[in-house]
Amino acid sequence: MSREWMILVAVWVTAFSLFFFIPRKAFRLAQLAILFKQLITWIIGLVVVELGLIEYPVREFASENRSSFTFEYLVYPIVCGLFNARYPENRSLGFKLLYYCSYCSVITVIELLIEINTDLIRYLHWNWYWTWITLFATFLMSRKFCKWYFSISKIASD
């Protein structure tokens, strides 16, 4: 097994282990965030690959799709579920901004290390800051969607 495939297996194990860090009372919120993030990252990932901005030389389902199933459909959504489940709702705006920035920065640094050291991701016409910006935007979109959805479901159940 090549180094890239071992990394993919380790990423799958790590991603699924993140479920243990989601508080039980916030599990429905995390599920919704995961599903929403899957929708938007799958679409964005496909567009980015088709425009030739990023390439995934080693990937699952290589004959079906040029995007990375692991990153676009598993890792980013599960991290987003954790992000939303542990969101510091009652903290200051500055703390919330730091929360967003820390998640985006950690994921971006990990992706950049993977891009530099493996054949899992190759930036063609892409830079790390585009990753950071798209992560920030999709985390913000998922947070707004979850707040909207649960405010609607609360009204409907009253």
TrEMBL record:
Stretches that traverse the bilayer: 6-22, 34-54, 66-85, 97-116, 128-146
Superkingdom, natural source: Bacteria
Transmembrane found in the keyword field: yes
Record keywords: Membrane, Transmembrane, Transmembrane helix
This protein's record includes keyword Transmembrane: yes
Name by which UniProt lists this protein: Uncharacterized protein
